[in-house]
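G., before I forget:
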Amino acid sequence: MTDRELKLKSVEYRQKILRYIYHAKAGHTGGSLSCIDILNVLYNQVMNVSPENFDDPGRDRYVQSKGHSVEALYVVLADLGFFPEEDLLTLCRYQSPYIGHPTKKVRGMEQNTGGLGHGLAICSGNALAAKKDKLPLRVFTVLGDGEMAEGSNWEAMMLAAHYKLDNLCAILDYNKQQITGANADVIGLEPIRQKVEAFGWVVREVDGNDVCALADTLQCLPFEAGKPSFVIAHTVKGKGVSFMEGVLKWHHGVPSPEQYEQAMKELEEARQKLLEEVVEA
Amino acid sequence: MEMVQTKDIPNLIVFSETLQALAEIDRDILVVTSDSRGSGKLVPFGEKFPDQIVEVGIAEQNLVGMAAGLASMGKKAFAVSPACFLTARSLEQIKNDVAYSDNPVKLIGISAGVSYGALGTTHHSLHDFAVLRAIHNLTIVAPCDNFETAESIRQAAEMDSPVYIRFGKKGMPTLNRTIDPTFRIGQGRTIREGEDLTFIGTGEAVLPCEEAAEMLAEKHGIRCRVISLHTIKPLDESLILAAAANGQPVITAEEHSVHGGLGEAVAALLFQNGCRNKFKIVGLPDEYTVNGSQIEIFDHYGISGKGLMGTALQLLGSGSGK
Ligand SMILES: [Mg+2]
């Protein structure tokens, strides 16, 4: 996929995230908008996961540790053809499989997540099993910055380095905010790079809302043979909608009709701009 | 007494030997330990199958989360750790990563109940049945002897859903296998027939039930049925209801708090099916557990042949003691 196609996907995904959150009157808006570029690049550029190979043991694995940003994952999986996109109109509705966190009831989901600090340990198990079976697959997880306070993440970090799981890549959606406020005010996680490096991982930092930069970074896995890879993806919560960017209340805020219209207008303008660029090119 | 007496071997040893035999023929069997290979008697396993043992260090959350990740890749992962830590420290991993995500991990709670005796409450697991019973998609097994331990481990290896198996480390005689020589997870075993009273025990509390039944028969001519209800969940409802059908007293015995364990499961079943038998739950009362060895703690709370005999005579009343 070309850079422009990737960029276009991101804008369209953002429109869909808002559409289904608005329709459901529920969802984790800010976090879904911050991590969507990461998921876009993973599923469209990096991983060998598709509806066709989803039962193949050799497929790459993705486990979303920050489960609450499930709307981002839903729209990507729908786009890949795992299920009809209109199913998302049932998001959070009575008896719908599309709940507010990833579940395996939805095709394309590898694990049920939602409790924080769980993804990395599961991924370590996946990666270790792949090593034992000599399967060349890779395992990915997206972590939230708030959940880095969970001790279980650091248990898994120790283990992944000890077992030299260089088929494992964790991506931190570092939007610097969590439900109560700035990470730095809630419980500081800096210096995160040094901490992760001290645990034996190789760290790269990237603009996590720049699909080209993300794609470049994730093409180089593993960053070093014999070590797990960690990407600090600097992102903006609520990215792509001017009045949501960096504004705490959009952690799980649902837009009013006027806000929704405004947000969709902004995104449509961004989309048109990209389409024009595609035509020019 | 028709006991098949063998040398008393701890269930823990039988577990390790059974697993070694399985690992020999099945390379997908993996043991995951949290610095617990010594306590799990798994040192020989590690020596024989170094590629089939995974050490995570003292990190029980990681033990269970990692095992879930192994299981989802098709590995038969046995996560082995003292029951006290496994079912408390990593409870959320059991609930979410194993049960909810339906990753068929085999959770092995070693040195369960009050096996650690005088090491105290930090090392006791008197809550595990209660908390795990409330979690959907988890089978809970407490084998009473070497036979049930070996069988439950063998069957767990082939299960494609999550299972928790807990046992102690004291030498255990193998109990009567002549009445019911079969073992199926989910189906209790009647190890003694009788119609005057029914003991329903689980795990290492079955042996004192058998001892009480023997003494009641010898000293009082009272014939007791003894059921080893090794599977706490799913509960073998038909076996329990059949045992209670004649209206005679029922006594449950478990190495667990009287709250939320086998006894309350049986009570709920009986009451909701209209049974009004005299009934007593014997287990650890809701108090700071007395200090002592496992056997001393059992004696203190009446989880002993003598204690259970006394409870039986009480329920039967002075007039019904034949
Ligand atoms: Mg955040």
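Residues 257-280 of chain A form the longest helix (24 residues). DSSP finds nine helices and seven strands in chain A.

More on Monday.
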